[in-house]
Amino acid sequence: MPSLMPSSLPSLMPKIESQLSDLPVPLTLQLPDGRQVSRPGSRITLAFSDWSALAKLGARQLGAIGEAYVEGKVQIQGAMRDLVDVTVGLLPGNPAEITHSWWSKLQRHARSRGSHSLGKDAEQIQFHYDVSDDFYALWLDPRRVYSCAYFRDAAMTLAQAQEAKLDHICRKLMLQPGDRYLDIGSGWGGLLLWAAEHYGVDATGITLSKNQHAYVTRLIEEKGLSGRVRVELRDYRLLEEDKPFDKISSVGMFEHVGSANMGTYFRKVHALLKPGGLALNHGITSGQLEYAQLGAGLGDFIEKYIFPGGELLHVTRILHETSAAGLEMVDTENLRPHYARTLWHWSDALEARFDEAREVLVRTSGTDKAERILRAYRLYLAGSAMSFEQGWIALHQMLSTRPDGRVKEWPLRGAQSVYPFVRDYIYK
């Protein structure tokens, strides 16, 4: 039922309706008392059952509107792609362009340090990735690769583009039979198993997700790879350094490390990598040099409902930490538009199987929690696609080496690693 109008509002309603009708986008608003305000050409309706949520729209606090939708105070009628167009039009400016004072930077650093202990990181990863394997399976590709695909050919399906991404990474790393290979944050095992089956490596994966660990362990056994593939439920900080790896990958993981721990992370990668070896970090980066999280409440929404503890840094900061740890960056590639297209595939798949997703989540989480999870992911996938399209966030693959200090003749004098210093080997 529509909520009662606060006693102070009747005299203000003409002004409120005028402001709402002047919104810069075609949008229909259903007010908590049942009345409607609409702009011509509207394909999206926001139905408010709460006056405070409506006030957030007037203040352009779109993250708060998202929270109200998750909590059932706003209903959305219309397609997610149309909603994204409306959202971009409602934003007061670029939400990534935020000026930060020295005090806010200090607060952010302190918060980062407190949010990334061993226990906190495990809790935060399980909050997101252990929602339900069956839920993720509804909208991911068959390999459950939960990271940016690589659309090498525009006609590729999502499944083909994900396999192209897995192979792109393996080629960049120059994986060879017998290589000792580590995948940090191995997810549902897509890259780990691809590298083992197609490149003959001895592969180790680590994850903090109990669901993923159980799933990949089962796949390893089913595929008869137990002799040379393993997955461990372990934090990267607890890996032993006595037997360094030839090659290391980390896909969609350093976003969870935290700004305060980024130096620790790359020093660990350096310690785990054999001199002369290759490491590839693939992760989401911010679109602005000075960046904490998206403004207009969008970052707060992601922090609360999707990725608690997640932090995005500009690629220059990532590369700074890479160099400070003693690693040499040899190749960096921006795949930002590829991630926008990946996310639209995921969003469209979730929309197409919305009722199935609800049934899956109800079984695992109960009705009330299931509805909140489903609404949150619906906004998260479409909103993230929008953020990559707009350039507010990006996706970089950064290949680096641990120089061995030897000036040898091959592949080039002074290379100090297996990297050939020509890029064509990736594409042959």
Explain what you see.
This protein has 428 residues and is an alpha/beta fold. The protein folds into 2 domains: 10-90, no CATH class; 106-426, Vaccinia Virus protein VP39 (Rossmann fold). It contains 16 helices and 11 strands. It has helices at residues 13-21, 51-58, 62-70, 80-90, 102-115, 118-129, 133-139, 158-172, 190-199, 210-222, 262-272, 298-305, 315-324, 336-352, 354-365, 367-390; strands at 28-30, 36-38, 45-48, 74-77, 180-184, 202-207, 229-233, 245-251, 273-286, 328-334, 393-401. The protein has a 7-stranded mixed sheet with strand order 7-6-5-8-9-11-10. Strand 8, helix 11 (262-272) and strand 9 form a beta-alpha-beta unit. Helix 15 (354-365) packs across helix 16. 45% of the residues are buried. The model is unreliable at 122-129 (pLDDT under 50).
Protein topology:
Blueprint: H1 13-21, E1 28-30, E2 36-38, E3 45-48, H2 51-58, H3 62-70, E4 74-77, H4 80-90, H5 102-115, H6 118-129, H7 133-139, H8 158-172, E5 180-184, H9 190-199, E6 202-207, H10 210-222, E7 229-233, E8 245-251, H11 262-272, E9 273-286, H12 298-305, H13 315-324, E10 328-334, H14 336-352, H15 354-365, H16 367-390, E11 393-401
Parallel strand pairs: 1-3, 5-6, 5-8, 6-7, 8-9
Antiparallel strand pairs: 1-2, 3-4, 9-11, 10-11
Helix pairs in contact: 2-3, 3-12, 3-16, 4-16, 8-9, 11-13, 14-16, 15-16
